[in-house]
């Protein structure tokens, strides 16, 4: 048996390799599917320049075996370098999660030119609201699983400082979680803007909730159509939204806001984590590339009950959720419909996919209303 | 992939940790009410933050649970944990005042007495079974040389488990028993352990989760008990070992005797295999939570006190007897049907025998008070002195 150092600094404990390898026999997540003893042996002695280790990266996947039907990712990045240092594991995980995308061979297209979007104003008898979200990480600072309090506070400082430079319809205000008044808190709850300390063990086991609510907060513009979460699951989550079906306008504001924030942080000597292989770098490998989820709340009471609904969504590269977000059920026939993919296609491409797909779903619903039959569309785009 | 560092390059890692000033890293404890928060000033943080134990446990690791869990206005939690035996030395400046505050003024120069000789206990075999439903004594033990649950690796945890299995398998006579690994038990075994009230679950308390004790669950965790179900050992839950002796009724003496015999035997068996328990003459037995130092001992009974518990002086009586009450579900539960869990409040600075004696004497008094109140008589003349 191979004896290796399995400890930090002077704590020398000689264990056979097999003694440290996690027991993943009951596990069903992407990390567990791809972590072999050989990969573990190769990577377990390494740390990123910030000191983030393999054990820390996979802890969430060890602690949360997963679900027979839902395949979670099972690992996180602690910093930008994680994606390089632990590439032997992260590359196959990314490949599995993102439909065969190979970070060693492929390039990810970034495209935030919202003028390219065609149509994108939905029938508002069906679409109740439209929303686009993504995340951005500040290069040079560790990610939520690994950051120290000072780093997290630095993220907050950099982002809030930049946001104070937004003008026009993007003028807004920051509400720190530690300092908001009861009244502000209630308003944010009523607006459905307030985020809570994570309770999902997928997140808490990765260490993202440490020091809560220190350096966490919410920024939004006065019109309440552009919102930024600071230091929740990522350095920033950026959300553009409005009632009704004008997805094109939501995306236009999304792109404009993002570019403006990027310009403002660059003025101050910072930049977002991005590279051509993986696009925008975020904490969870599932959010690489665009990190983009464009979605609508849409009334599809008849289609929602049709046995072909799942297949239709699949072929349109869309996913459904309840209106409470991931892990909730649809209420009153209203679904949250959004893009499945994140990496390998650009923002423009993904939003167009959602627009075309939702339009198709609305057509199906209208046909069913009239007692007409519907068709399952052919597979759309890369599978 | 050449931009990684070796995990073991300690000085480089600590250098990275010091990139920001102490002030920038100092936690916001303004909403907090736990022992750690009361004691950790920004000066203390600055002095301690560049230190770590040989296994790499840092100040931030020690205090994470206390930062994440501000506490409760009425209940004072500890707010810090040890990741290994050395934590209590390296972070002495923090641990000593926390220990002093938690353990009734115990000084850094005080010596703790260990006494596991049950012959030194007086009485205790006849707590009135009409009132005392069950008797129980528990403690914890840590195996020297290994990191504690907040910090141990999977390999260490499994080694602790294997050592424990081997050692416990050698117990004989009344102590002969069987080990049930959490990840291997059958549905039937699991149900039996639940029915016996032996099975422990993955911790849900944020106090424990925030310190990393539940990592890799249920790997390396298990329950051992003797065939007569009166001696039980938990492996790798909140401590390396939790040792419990229990039985129905009021014969605390028998429970304590078995406790001492069992512990002493287990210690012997570990020593035969080249391992000892973490212990020193200042802090007694070393456990994960500073609240469990010294004896780590909680001796308690489930006792029916529907009348006494409603008396206006009940809390005062318990305080003077150095006892505490809990509901019968354990810490953080409420009493049901007038049945209370009454146990010693202290852990450190008193020996095992002394603590069990306090419980025996105190419970006897409480039962006498209960009988008086049942008979409609006053208990004013029975008020105890402060112990």
Automatic annotation (TrEMBL), chain A:
Superkingdom in the source lineage: Eukaryota
Residues covered by the Phosphagen kinase C-terminal domain: 126-368
The family database entries (SUPFAM superfamilies) matched by this protein are listed as: Glutamine synthetase/guanido kinase (SSF55931), Guanido kinase N-terminal domain (SSF48034)
One cellular component term from this protein's GO annotations in UniProt: mitochondrial inner membrane
Main localization is mitochondrion
- One Pfam family named in its UniProt record: ATP-gua_PtransN
* Cell compartment(s), UniProt: Mitochondrion inner membrane
Entry annotated with the keyword DNA-binding: no
Membrane topology reported for the UniProt record: Peripheral membrane protein
Q: What is its EC number?
A: 2.7.3.2
User: In this protein, which residues make up the domain named Phosphagen kinase N-terminal?
Assistant: 12-99
Record-level GO BP terms: phosphocreatine biosynthetic process
Kindly list the positions annotated as binding ATP.
129-133, 192, 237, 293-297, 321-326
**Family annotation (Gene3D superfamilies):** ATP:guanido phosphotransferase, N-terminal domain, Glutamine synthetase/guanido kinase, catalytic domain
Class of this enzyme? transferase
Family to which this protein belongs: Belongs to the ATP:guanido phosphotransferase family.
Q: Quaternary state and partners of this protein?
A: Exists as an octamer composed of four MTCK homodimers.
> What's its job?
Reversibly catalyzes the transfer of phosphate between ATP and various phosphogens (e.g. creatine phosphate). Creatine kinase isoenzymes play a central role in energy transduction in tissues with large, fluctuating energy demands, such as skeletal muscle, heart, brain and spermatozoa.
The protein's name in its UniProt record: Creatine kinase U-type, mitochondrial
Source species of the chain: Oreochromis aureus
TrEMBL record, chain B:
Location of the Phosphagen kinase N-terminal domain: 17-104
- Annotated keywords: ATP-binding, Kinase, Nucleotide-binding, Transferase
User: What is the superkingdom listed in this entry's lineage?
Assistant: Eukaryota
Q: Where is the sequence biased in composition, kind Basic and acidic residues?
A: 102-116
Q: Which GO terms describe its cellular component?
A: extracellular space
> Could you list the residue ranges forming a coiled coil in this record?
none
**Which positions are annotated as binding ATP?**
134-138, 197, 242, 298-302, 326-331
Metal-binding as a keyword? no
Sequence ranges assigned to domain Phosphagen kinase C-terminal in this UniProt record: 131-373
Record's catalysed reaction(s): creatine + ATP = N-phosphocreatine + ADP + H(+)
| A Pfam family that the UniProt record links to this protein | ATP-gua_Ptrans
Cite the GO molecular-function annotations of the record.
ATP binding; creatine kinase activity
Report the EC number(s), separated by commas if there are several.
Answer: 2.7.3.2
Where are the annotated segments for Disordered?
Answer: 102-129
Name the enzyme group at the top EC level.
transferase
Q: Which GO terms describe its biological process?
A: phosphocreatine biosynthetic process
Similarity remark? Belongs to the ATP:guanido phosphotransferase family.
What name goes with this protein?
A: creatine kinase
């Amino acid at each position: 048996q191979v004896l290796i150092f399995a400890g930090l600094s002077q704590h020398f404990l000689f264990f056979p390799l097999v003694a440290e390898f996690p027991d993943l026999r009951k596990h069903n997540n992407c990390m567990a599917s791809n972590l072999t003893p050989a990969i573990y042996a190769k990577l377990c002695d390494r740390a990123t320049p910030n000191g983030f280790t393999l054990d820390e990266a996979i802890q969430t996947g060890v602690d949360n075996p997963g679900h027979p039907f839902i395949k979670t990712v099972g690992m996180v990045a602690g910093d930008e370098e994680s994606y390089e240092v632990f590439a032997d594991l992260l590359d196959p995980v990314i490949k599995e999660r993102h439909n065969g995308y190979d970070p060693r061979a492929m390039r990810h297209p970034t495209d935030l030119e919202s003028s390219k979007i065609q149509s994108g104003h939905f029938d508002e008898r069906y679409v109740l609201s439209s929303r686009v979200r993504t995340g951005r990480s500040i290069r040079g600072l560790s990610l939520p699983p690994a950051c120290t309090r000072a780093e997290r506070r630095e993220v907050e400082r950099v982002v809030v400082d930049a946001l104070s430079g937004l003008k026009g319809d993007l003028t807004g205000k920051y509400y720190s979680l530690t300092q908001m008044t009861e009244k502000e808190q209630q308003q944010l709850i009523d607006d459905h803007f307030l985020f809570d300390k994570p309770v999902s063990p997928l997140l808490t086991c990765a260490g993202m909730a440490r020091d809560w609510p220190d350096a966490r907060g919410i920024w939004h513009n006065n019109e309440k159509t552009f919102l930024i979460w600071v230091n929740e699951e990522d350095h920033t989550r950026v959300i553009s939204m409005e009632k009704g079906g004008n997805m094109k306008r939501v995306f236009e504001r999304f792109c404009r806001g993002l570019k403006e924030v990027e310009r403002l942080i660059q003025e101050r000597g910072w930049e977002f984590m991005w590279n051509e292989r993986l696009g925008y770098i975020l904490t969870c490998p599932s959010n690489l590339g665009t990190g983009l989820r464009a979605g609508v709340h849409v009334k599809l009471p008849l289609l929602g009950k049709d046995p072909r609904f799942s297949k239709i969504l699949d072929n349109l590269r869309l996913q459904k959720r309840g209106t409470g977000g991931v892990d909730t059920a649809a209420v009153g026939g209203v679904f949250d419909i959004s893009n499945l993919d994140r990496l390998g296609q650009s923002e423009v491409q993904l939003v167009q996919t959602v627009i075309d797909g939702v339009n198709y779903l609305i057509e199906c619903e209208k046909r069913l209303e009239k007692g007409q039959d519907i068709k399952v569309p052919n597979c759309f785009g890369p599978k | 992939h050449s931009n990684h560092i070796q995990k073991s390059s300690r000085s480089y890692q600590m250098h990275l940790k010091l990139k920001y000033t102490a002030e920038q890293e100092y936690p916001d404890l303004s909403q907090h009410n736990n022992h750690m928060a009361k004691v950790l000033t920004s000066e203390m943080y600055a002095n301690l933050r560049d230190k770590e134990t040989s296994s790499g446990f840092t100040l931030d690791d020690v205090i994470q649970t206390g930062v994440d869990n501000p506490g409760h206005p009425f209940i004072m939690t500890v707010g810090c944990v040890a990741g290994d035996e050395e934590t209590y030395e390296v972070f002495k400046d923090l641990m000593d005042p926390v220990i002093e505050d938690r353990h009734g003024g115990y000084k850094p120069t005080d010596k703790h007495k260990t006494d596991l000789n049950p012959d030194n206990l007086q009485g205790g075999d006849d707590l009135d079974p009409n009132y005392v439903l069950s008797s129980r004594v528990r403690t914890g033990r840590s195996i020297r040389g290994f990191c504690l649950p907040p910090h141990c690796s999977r390999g260490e945890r499994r080694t602790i488990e294997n050592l424990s299995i081997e050692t416990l398998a050698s117990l004989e006579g009344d102590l002969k028993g069987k080990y049930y690994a959490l990840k291997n038990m059958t549905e039937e075994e699991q149900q039996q352990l639940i029915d016996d009230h032996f099975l422990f679950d993955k911790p849900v308390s944020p106090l424990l989760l925030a310190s990393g004790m539940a990592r890799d669950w249920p790997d390396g965790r298990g329950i051992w008990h003797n065939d007569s179900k009166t001696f039980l050992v938990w492996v790798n839950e909140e401590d390396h070992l939790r040792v419990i002796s229990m039985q129905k009724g009021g014969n605390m003496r028998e429970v304590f005797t078995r406790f001492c015999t069992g512990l002493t035997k287990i210690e012997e068996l570990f020593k035969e295999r080249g391992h000892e328990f973490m212990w020193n003459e200042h802090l007694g037995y070393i456990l994960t939570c500073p609240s469990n130092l010294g004896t780590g001992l909680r001796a308690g009974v489930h006792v029916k006190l529907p009348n006494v518990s409603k008396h206006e002086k009940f809390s005062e009586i318990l305080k003077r007897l150095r006892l505490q009450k809990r509901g019968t579900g354990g810490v953080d539960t409420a009493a049901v049907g007038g049945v209370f869990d009454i146990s010693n409040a202290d852990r450190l600075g008193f020996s095992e025998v002394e603590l069990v004696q306090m419980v025996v004497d105190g419970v006897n008094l409480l039962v006498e008070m209960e009988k008086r109140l049942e008979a409609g008589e006053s208990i004013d003349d029975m008020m105890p002195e402060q112990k």
